[in-house]
Amino acid sequence: MKEVKLIIVGFGNIGRRFAEVLEAKKGFISRKYGLGFSVVAIAEKNGSLVNEKGLDLKKALKVQLARNPCWTGRKSLDVIKSVEADIMLELTPGDIRSGEPGLSHIMRALEAGKDVVTSNKSPIALKFREIMEYARKKGCEVRYEATVGGAIPIINLYRNTLQVNEVRNVYGILNGTTNFILSKMSEESVDFDIALKEAQELGLAESDASYDVDGVDTAVKLVILANSLMGRNISFKDVKVSGIREVNSETLDLAKKHGSEIRLIGDVAAMEVSPRLIPKNHPLNISGALNAVLIETDVAGDIILVGVGAGPRETSSSLMSDVLDLGVRKR
Ligand SMILES: NC(=O)c1ccc[n+]([C@@H]2O[C@H](COP(=O)([O-])OP(=O)(O)OC[C@H]3O[C@@H](n4cnc5c(N)ncnc54)[C@H](OP(=O)(O)O)[C@@H]3O)[C@@H](O)[C@H]2O)c1
Asked: Could you tell me if 302 and 318 lie in one domain?
């Protein structure tokens, strides 16, 4: 059985949940695909677990990393370069101004001939062309389904199934936190602050929720979709962004009187993120923390995808699909 070796960089919510899903699905993957996966290193900010024969994931998940006998002081860039592996998973938080630390991790992995799978939006949104060109030069793959729409297969749907289609536009709800807040405000007639507080209590929003409510998160995802599905070469600064802070009960009531709801929409063709009126019976009129994306194509027509747009478990499904696809190619 072919053994595919993985390095995980960033062992937070996503990294840990990915490791749990990998462990839980090991038997299924080996029966169905004849593939084994072993994690040979887990890199964190201040050091790494390394075992080139494969780490005990259950132990890595249970015991504090620094107390694990495989703990070393080796930094992520060193581990990515020198530990033998097939795929590097980049799962650190990203800075949208610099793309770091993820950008350096991705470039280092490609330099070392390793494929990359990531859920980190910033480097992909900021340096899409550079990353893809370097990957091509090195004969490597970079996969990033998990950067947009959590569990919803958007990028791989296009890659695997819509190949002959020209994508004319992609637009929709790309941020579950803002959709939850707007739904709550409209359905229960509560103010923005109360809806935001509930989103924070439910773990849907960070204590500093500006990235979500000011539309930045949606804009970053819009850039990734524009560049990867529509062949654009845009960056975050090309997108006109307004968030949901100005939406209040009066605007929501007025929308309702006209048979509509207000939703934060990212629209690639318009290069804009803004609150828009969505008619009640429109497929993008969804409630709660879900995401909904409409892909307009020339041959297949309109395709609408709805699903869970974030969350470590759901995002792990997208990471697994990228990892499995690359693994199968290595068989
Ligand atoms: N959570 C979601 O539902 C979701 C969904 C889709 C995409 N994403 C994206 O996935 C990525 C990971 O998200 P998350 O929720 O797992 O974040 P997280 O819980 O904050 O975990 C990130 C981990 O990366 C570590 N880290 C930071 N800098 C590092 C470095 N230079 N080298 C190695 N490790 C480093 C952090 O360590 P410290 O704690 O010590 O800083 C932390 O353990 C982010 O880019 C996020 O935007 C998340």
From this structure: no
